[in-house]
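Input (structure):
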């Protein structure tokens, strides 16, 4: 566990995000903090991409129209190795970078995408990420 991020703090960050997204308080999601080796293995196994990445999200069910479902949301997997590297490159704390990746992963679980959509939809997702991050950091 990265210094400054306890299990309790991560749970709180997840709850804050889901509340700000107007999601049911009974939603569940799993979070795995791992390293580049494991995330690369998962990326290869499930996405057929043999490379490490910063965050993977696996939704339990496909969300429709960005409406919060009322079930097990899915899994968010974050590579702390990549997050640490990105934090150094961006000049931010590791905690802030993990928070950004967590927000990004949760949005994917809710059906937001940035790969197979228009530039307008990509911007909407980025703007929402920024809004959630800034609201939490206040």
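Output (sequence):
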């Amino acid at each position: 566990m990265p210094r400054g991020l306890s299990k309790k703090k991560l749970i709180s960050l997840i709850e804050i995000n889901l509340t700000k997204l107007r999601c049911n308080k009974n939603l569940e999601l799993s979070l795995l903090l791992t390293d580049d080796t494991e995330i690369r293995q998962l990326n290869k196994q499930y996405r057929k991409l043999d490379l490490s990445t910063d965050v993977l999200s696996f939704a339990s069910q496909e969300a429709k129209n960005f409406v919060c479902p009322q079930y097990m949301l899915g899994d968010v997997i974050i590579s702390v190795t990549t997050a640490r590297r990105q934090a150094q490159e961006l000049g931010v704390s590791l905690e802030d970078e993990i928070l950004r990746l967590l927000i990004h992963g949760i949005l994917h679980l809710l059906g937001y995408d940035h790969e197979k959509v228009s530039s307008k939809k990509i911007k909407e997702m980025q703007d929402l990420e920024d809004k959630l991050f800034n609201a939490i950091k206040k």
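Notes: The mean pLDDT is 86. Helices lie at 7-20, 36-47, 80-90, 94-109, 119-137.
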